[in-house]
Design a protein that fits this description.
The structure is a single chain. With about 750 residues, the protein is an alpha/beta fold. It has two domains: about 260 residues, Phosphatidylinositol (PI) phosphodiesterase (TIM Barrel), CATH 3.20.20.190; about 350 residues, TIM Barrel (Alpha-Beta Barrel), CATH 3.20.20. It is built from 28 helices and 27 strands. The strands form six sheets. Strands 13-26-25-22-20-19-18-14-15 form a nine-stranded mixed beta sheet. Strand 8, helix 8 and strand 9 form a beta-alpha-beta unit. Helix 1 packs across helix 2 and helix 12 crosses helix 13. It starts with a helix and ends with a helix. The structure holds 2-acetamido-2-deoxy-beta-D-glucopyranose (NAG) (10 copies). One 2-acetamido-2-deoxy-beta-D-glucopyranose binds next to helix 17. It catalyses: a sn-glycero-3-phosphodiester + H2O = an alcohol + sn-glycerol 3-phosphate + H(+). It is an enzyme of class 3 (hydrolase). Its EC number is 3.1.4.46. Pfam families: GDPD.
Length: about 750
């Protein structure tokens, strides 16, 4: 716990963030009266064991990193345990087994003790002196999180060590006073003496007797005593009443505490299917009798209610800015996220004017919430505040252009469970080559298909809005265009054209003409009409459209690190904008960002707009550098390379990002600054993720293509299978869902695959 080591750590961590931590440039929180907290002030943000979502809980890395990346008034949470020699250390559990390497350092020094009536075996702090514990290193105790910092030899911190970092406050949580008392160690004496030496702001405990004993000594101080509620069925050790019954007796709690700390579900309960129920009256009830309420158990990488669409900022806002109440503080493993939520996102109206960049372009509508390209996905994208909604165009056998994410109807519909399943065929020109393709069915039959939500993260057991997984209707391009035309909030529509060569040469379907025709009919060729973006990964498609008033967008369909000058000049000849993937901007390895390429500024220097795809909210889609926070990811693409647009499954997240108040500040606070790609990976001691071969540079050869072939006369190729009879209203034959993925891979494993 030498100061030297601490300083080194601080310097390293400071490098981690582009976050120049401007002293004194405190963000100006909104006027106090905005907050429906007990005292009208902004809610506290409490870093649970520091930034424990990323680094070992209660380590110097965790505490320092939390301080660097969060609000200036951040409170650091410490679970106090006492050593044999009565020293107070911060450690997340009464047993040292899971979050340290103690069993390796002191084999066989485990013991069995009775803790609140339960026999427990393991390594207890009361069996070790502080000096002995100095040889022990902290490790990641939550096995779904990255163990990459376990080799960093992070020592156990004392309460005194934590106060050396000069936090705005320290929250001491005393989970087990009764146990330490049995072993003649006094938590009471420890916290009283600590409060004289460290900036203790809160002391919490789930034990009534312990807090009652502190009420007097702390009566004339600013220190808040907080009663911690555990599971409602558990008995509180000193009163032998369940926490559930104590919850109905808040006036009793008020006799010895100034606040309560509750699991977040006490305030916003979640039903068995993972959806939020209406909030309880707990916060209002507690506030009425003058008790503060703190909510615990926030973590970006644990499942939270589907209502939040995997956006953790939305979850915090429902606790601090819901119109009915605000909790007085939140306890989080990822304190950067409540920092943003409180100081940048709260009290911003849905109609507040956002900044222009980046353009929020939906990906198959709000496909994170509803089956892609359905009427419901599009109306959600519009109400979410998307600037542009997109239609990837497919062609039916009878030549009707419609919107769907894939030419293969297996991907986005339940066609595999209908009589049309016999239309499976192999088409070598398409990727993947096997499927039931849109050109094998007439529009009337396609319209009748049941859409299916896109679930890219089932391997990590993350599902999208299951209640609505088959909701909505597939719509034609002309209906899409009519819908968008009527919607003034949209600045453009994006039409995507793929497989034009194959459709023309082999299916007699002219997709480019069908699109241009639909645009004409819908009045988009009118000079005053809404802007149209036409996107394709085929240069010949874009060349065939050049000269119209549409913005032409070239999609680079491989990961690149740059493009040479001749190639960009070539692209500039047929396109106004370019779509690249996220990894082309921030290459990654083993779940960490490696660097940032120059591709965005390079393309922009040729006056090409750069749109990046595909942004998703699910934690497994995010490199560790973005702290399991999809807003940090978007912000890093905007504040870092300065992308012109983001293509996203969750337009609400990107649209609310553009409205956040911190974008208007002259200097972005640390929690709203771009992360520095590569810095986090450099902090890993020991095995680094494998160095990957860099992505290629895009060349003229990659871009050039023969011109589009003429559309051959229809009916030259018959569908592979005879068209089956029309679907009857009911009684569609079902096949067993053999293709369902359900391998139980941990979230972390899924991240490592990318
Ligand atoms: C510690 O790890 C064991 C085995 O992996 C697990 O059963 C136990 O619940 C963990 N204990 C805590 C306190 O996390
Ligand atoms: C605690 O102290 C009492 C009295 O000094 C003694 O009888 C008891 O054995 C001690 N208990 C432990 C666990 O050391
Ligand atoms: C606590 O209450 C339970 C029943 O509610 C009872 O069985 C038990 O004996 C009580 N324990 C103590 C220590 O009073
Ligand atoms: C509240 O709890 C106290 C202490 O356990 C008890 O004396 C009192 O009767 C309880 N009041 C109610 C209304 O349950
Ligand atoms: C959460 O979503 C479900 C399903 O859409 C809805 O029924 C419920 O009312 C929502 N809960 C809240 C609190 O909005
Ligand atoms: C579409 O489905 C095929 C298998 O039918 C699969 O290989 C492919 O990855 C899917 N594409 C998407 C985007 O889900
Ligand atoms: C567009 O607006 C017009 C006039 O307000 C209305 O008649 C029409 O039904 C609307 N179309 C759509 C697709 O909403
Ligand atoms: C980009 O456009 C600006 C004005 O819109 C023009 O001044 C500049 O020369 C253009 N640069 C290139 C490289 O085309
Ligand atoms: C289909 O092809 C046959 C000859 O192979 C031709 O007689 C018929 O008119 C064609 N039908 C259409 C709709 O083009
Ligand atoms: C289609 O309908 C015809 C006549 O109604 C029937 O003979 C035939 O078996 C049906 N085919 C299929 C694939 O259901």
């Amino acid at each position: 716990m030498g100061t030297c080591k601490l300083v080194v750590v601080l310097v390293l961590l400071a490098q981690l963030s582009a976050f120049a931590y401007a002293q004194g440039s405190k963000t100006t929180p909104p006027a106090k009266s905005l907050w429906q907290t007990l005292d009208g002030g902004a809610p506290f943000i409490v870093a649970h064991g520091g930034f424990s979502g990323l680094f070992p809980d209660s380590s110097s890395f965790a505490y320092n990193f939390a301080t660097i990346t969060s609000v200036p008034d951040l409170i650091l949470w410490c679970d106090v345990q006492l050593t044999k020699d009565g020293m107070g250390i911060c450690f997340p559990d009464i047993k040292l087994d899971n979050s340290s390497d103690i069993s390796r350092i002191y084999p066989k020094r485990d013991n069995t003790y009775n803790v609140n009536g339960v026999k427990m075996q393991g390594y207890f702090p009361i069996d070790f002196t502080l000096k002995e514990l100095n040889k022990v290193s902290l490790t990641q105790g939550i096995y779904s999180r990255s163990p990459d910092f376990d080799a960093s030899m992070l020592q156990i911190q004392t309460v005194d060590d934590v106060s050396q970092t000069q936090p705005a406050g320290i929250w001491l949580n005393v989970q087990h006073d009764a146990f330490y008392t049995q072993h003649n160690l006094s938590m009471r004496s420890f916290v009283i003496s600590a409060s004289n030496n460290a900036p203790i702001s809160h002391i919490s405990s789930p034990e009534v007797k312990f807090l009652q004993g502190l009420a007097k000594p702390f009566a004339s101080t600013q220190i808040r005593l907080v009663f911690r509620f555990l599971d409602q069925d558990l008995a509180e050790p000193s009163t032998n009443q369940t926490y559930g019954s104590l919850l109905k007796n808040l006036t009793f709690i008020k006799t010895f505490a100034s606040g309560i700390l509750v699991p977040k579900a006490y305030i916003w309960p979640v039903d068995a299917s993972g959806y939020l129920l209406p909030h309880t009256s707990l916060v209002a009830d507690a506030h009425k009798i003058g008790l503060e309420v703190y909510a615990a158990d926030f973590a970006n990488d644990f499942t939270f209610a589907y209502n939040y669409s995997y956006n953790p900022v939305a979850e915090y806002l429902s606790f601090v800015d819901n119109g009915d109440f605000s909790v007085d503080g939140v306890v989080s493993d990822f304190p950067i996220t409540p920092s943003e939520a409180r100081d940048c996102f709260a009290h911003v109206g849905k109609n507040a004017l956002g900044q222009a960049k980046p353009l929020v372009i939906s990906h198959e509508g709000a496909s994170g919430d509803y089956p892609g390209c359905t009427d419901m996905a599009y109306s959600k994208a519009i109400s979410d505040g998307a600037d542009v909604i997109d239609c990837p165009v497919q062609m039916s056998q009878d030549g009707v252009p419609f919107c769907l994410g894939s030419i293969n109807l297996m991907n986005n519909t339940q066609i595999g469970q209908t009589q049309f399943r016999t239309l499976v065929q192999n088409v070598n020109e398409l990727r993947p080559s096997q499927g039931i393709f849109s050109f094998s069915l007439n529009w009337a039959d396609i319209q009748g298909l049941t859409p299916a939500i896109y679930n890219p993260w089932t391997a990590s057991l993350l599902y999208r809005n299951p209640k609505f997984r088959n909701a909505g209707k597939i719509i034609s391009l002309s209906d899409f265009l009519a819908l968008a035309k009527n919607t003034t909030s949209l600045s453009a529509v994006s039409i995507k054209i793929e497989n034009a060569q194959y459709l023309a040469a082999k299916q007699g379907l002219g997709i480019v003409d069908a699109v241009l025709d639909a645009l004409d009919k819908a009045g988009y060729n009118d000079p005053s009409a809404k802007k149209v973006m036409i996107q394709s990964s085929s240069s010949s498609v874009l060349k065939s459209i050049k000269g119209k008033k549409y913005e032409l967008v070239y999609e680079v369909d491989e990961t690149i690190r740059d493009a040479d000058k001749a190639t960009i000049t070539d692209i500039k000849g047929f396109a106004d904008a370019v779509v690249i993937d996220k990894v082309s901007v921030f290459p990654k390895s083993g779940g960490y960002l490696v660097t940032m390429t120059d591709i965005v500024p390079h393309l922009q220097s040729f006056n090409l707009s750069v749109y990046v795809q595909i942004f998703q909210n699910e934690v497994v889609s995010l490199p560790f550098d973005f702290f399991s926070d999809p807003v940090v990811e978007i912000n890093s693409y905007v504040m870092g390379p300065g992308v012109d647009g983001v293509i996203t499954d969750f337009p609400e997240t990107a649209a609310s990002y553009k409205r956040n108040l911190c974008l208007k500040m002259t200097k972005a606070p640390p929690y709203m600054s771009a992360v520095q790609a590569g810095a986090l990976m450099q902090q890993i001691s020991g095995a680094m993720p494998p160095a990957l071969a860099p992505s290629p540079v895009l060349t003229v050869a990659d871009v050039s293509e023969p011109p589009l072939p003429p559309v051959m006369t229809a009916n030259a190729t018959a569908p592979a299978a005879a068209a089956p009879n029309k679907t009857s209203a009911n009684g569609q034959p079902k096949v067993t869902a053999s293709a369902l993925l359900s391998s139980l891979i941990m979230i972390f494993a899924a991240v490592m695959m990318f």
